[in-house]
């Protein structure tokens, strides 16, 4: 993986928690519901649970996993600034929570495609893994499939993998109508096509709330690619979601992009069970 691909998300570090995200309105409530459900099942079994936060960013979901009841979270990201920020945010959260049974989190700089290279990591011991808009940023199908294999190795048999990816409809239709987010067309001005342009890099331009515009390169894959790749590794697809919000639930002064995302599919969410071959 090139340095540019690995570290491009570092441009977000200063704006990450205040940027032009639909996370608080749609993504966070959706994931927190799954975390709580998972935690309740673990509680019913009477066993502590461990989680992987792959591509942890600034630790938003590392903290939410701990809040949901994870006894341990291993958080990783390919960008050193993100890992540093996530560690700081999580340590701040854990201040004052010391004592018997205190949850723990460790942080590592590592690509999703090389997770098992982390020192002292134990394969087959994690109960839950999450990956939020991470795989689309890997540079090739080879890396995506390798990341899926790495995640499967680290999860225990029967463990759960939840991951978010940009919706293919967004990839093919997104314009700058919101003023915040724009997928740029090809260099020749033509639109991207579903099969022909699968896995090809496309530039996403985002204007953060600070006014700082940044550009990220990511990739989209067809539904058939995801289904085939997951099954090849040994994942069983348990659920598929297209989470969305209700514009009526947003405050009257909500940014236009939030209303846009509430009325169009912007994400695909896969919930998978690990059944190693």
CATH class: Alpha Beta
Span between termini: 27 Å
- Evaluate the radius of gyration: 18 Å
What is CATH's topology name? Rossmann fold
Supply the CATH architecture. Answer: 3-Layer(aba) Sandwich
Can you describe what's shown?
By secondary structure, the chain is α/β, with parallel strands linked by helices. It has helices at 3-7, 23-45, 60-68, 80-94, 141-154, 168-173, 223-233, 256-262, and strands spanning 50-54, 72-77, 104-109, 126-132, 155-166, 181-183, 202-207, 213-218, 235-241, 267-274. The chain has one domain (3-168, 219-274): Rossmann fold. The model has no long low-confidence stretch (mean pLDDT 85). It holds the Pfam family Methyltransf_11. Residues 52-163 form the Methyltransferase type domain. One of its GO terms (molecular function) is S-adenosylmethionine-dependent methyltransferase activity.
Structure keywords:
277 residues, 7-stranded mixed beta sheet, 3-stranded antiparallel beta sheet, SAM-dependent_MTases_sf, S-adenosylmethionine-dependent methyltransferase activity, Methyltransferase type 11 domain-containing protein, Methyltransf_11, Rossmann fold, alpha/beta
């Amino acid at each position: 993986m090139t340095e540019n691909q690995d570290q491009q998300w570092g441009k977000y570090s200063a704006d990450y928690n205040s940027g032009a995200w639909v996370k608080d309105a749609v993504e966070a409530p959706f994931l927190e519901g799954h975390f709580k459900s998972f935690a309740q099942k673990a509680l019913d079994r009477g066993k502590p649970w461990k989680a992987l936060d792959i591509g942890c960013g600034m630790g938003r979901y590392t903290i939410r996993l701990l809040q949901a009841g994870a006894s341990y979270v291993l958080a990783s990201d390919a960008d050193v600034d993100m890992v540093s920020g996530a560690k700081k945010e999580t340590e701040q959260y854990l201040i004052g929570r010391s004592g018997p049974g205190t949850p723990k989190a460790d942080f590592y700089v590592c690509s999703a495609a090389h997770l098992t290279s982390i020192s002292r990591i134990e394969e087959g011991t994690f109960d839950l893994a999450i990956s939020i808009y991470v795989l689309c940023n890997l540079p090739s199908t080879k890396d995506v499939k390798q990341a899926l294999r790495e995640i499967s190795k680290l999860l225990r048999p029967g463990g759960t993998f939840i991951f978010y990816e940009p919706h293919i409809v967004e990839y093919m239709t997104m314009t700058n109508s919101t003023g915040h987010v724009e997928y740029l067309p090809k260099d020749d001005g033509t639109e991207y096509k579903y099969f022909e342009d699968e896995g090809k890099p496309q530039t996403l331009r985002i204007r953060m709330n600070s006014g700082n515009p940044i550009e990220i390169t990511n990739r989209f894959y067809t539904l058939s690619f995801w289904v085939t790749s997951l099954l090849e590794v040994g994942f069983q697809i348990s659920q598929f979601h297209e989470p969305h919000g209700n514009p009526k639930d947003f405050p009257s002064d909500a940014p236009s992009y939030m209303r846009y995302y509430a009325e169009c599919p912007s994400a695909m969410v896969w919930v998978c069970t690990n059944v190693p071959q």
